[in-house]
Design goal:
By secondary structure, the protein is α+β, with helices and mostly antiparallel strands. It folds into 2 domains: 162 residues, Deoxyribonuclease I, Chain A; 44 residues, no CATH class. The chain contains 5 helices and 8 strands, in the order E-E-E-H-E-E-E-E-E-H-H-H-H. The strands form 2 sheets. It has a 6-stranded mixed beta sheet, with helices on one face. Strand 3, helix 1 and strand 4 form a beta-alpha-beta unit. Helix 3 runs antiparallel to helix 5. The longest helix is centred in the last third of the chain and has 19 residues. The protein is elongated, with a radius of gyration of 28 Å.
Length: 224
């Protein structure tokens, strides 16, 4: 996203995201938001990669730049509003927020996100952050800067475990219906005097509760 004139900045080119073609095709990348103001630059993209854990439908990556002279509270408020909208619209998408935050801290605005970068990225300061809702699911490593950048490059190693592997197996009982069970249930329903339920009450809720309970009892007996 090219830096716009109304950002109030004369140097630099904005924010961008590079995507490995072996991870996701260009056709499966959707732009969710492009925002450029004196306080916040945001490029939000939704990816549908070739492979995802079953519990996710997409990956929502938000690239952020908050200038040193920005009003931090205003920038975090704008970012919080955008992330809340994305999460409401894409509930099953994995959320990742990365970028140069300078002195801002996203956890002040969104406490349920975790910061995965724990080492200095420019001099002695940690200016570049990576946030997600998944605690301890990324290991961040410092790599040499790209080109002429004076910021340390960050390599994230996923440690995320699928929900299927995190949760203990659950044993459930499943009733198996036979043709005889279905026939027995049909006979019981045909022989039932349904008018007795109508005569027993004038309240629709009570009538429905009695009928549903009666059918459930018949179903339980027929399924055995």
């Amino acid at each position: 996203m090219n830096r716009m004139a109304d950002s109030g900045k004369s140097r630099g080119g904005g924010v961008f995201v590079m995507v490995n073609n072996s991870w996701c095709k260009n056709a499966n990348v959707v732009t969710l938001a492009r925002s450029c103001s004196p306080n916040l630059e945001l490029l939000a993209l939704k990816f549908r990669p070739f492979y995802l854990p079953q519990e996710f439908t997409a990956v929502n990556i938000n690239t952020v730049y908050i200038p040193p002279q920005a009003k931090r509270d205003t920038a975090l408020c704008e970012l919080h509003e955008a992330l809340t909208q994305f999460q409401a619209q894409h509930r099953d998408a994995a959320l990742i927020v990365v970028g140069d935050f300078n002195s801002a801290n996203l956890k002040h605005a969104v406490p349920n996100l975790y910061q995965h970068v724990t080492f200095p990225t420019r001099g002695t300061r940690t200016l570049d952050h990576c946030y997600s809702p998944y605690k301890d699911n990324y290991k961040a490593l410092a790599h040499p800067p790209f080109g002429k950048s004076d910021h340390t490059a960050i390599f994230l190693i996923p440690k995320y475990k699928q929900r299927l592997k995190r949760e203990a197996p659950v044993q459930r009982e499943v009733a198996c219906w036979t043709d005889q069970s279905v026939a027995a249930l049909q006979d019981a329903e045909d022989d039932t005097d349904w008018n007795m339920f109508r005569r027993s009450t004038d309240d629709v809720s009570e009538f429905m509760e009695a009928v549903v309970g009666f059918i459930g009892k018949h179903t339980e007996c027929a399924g055995r």
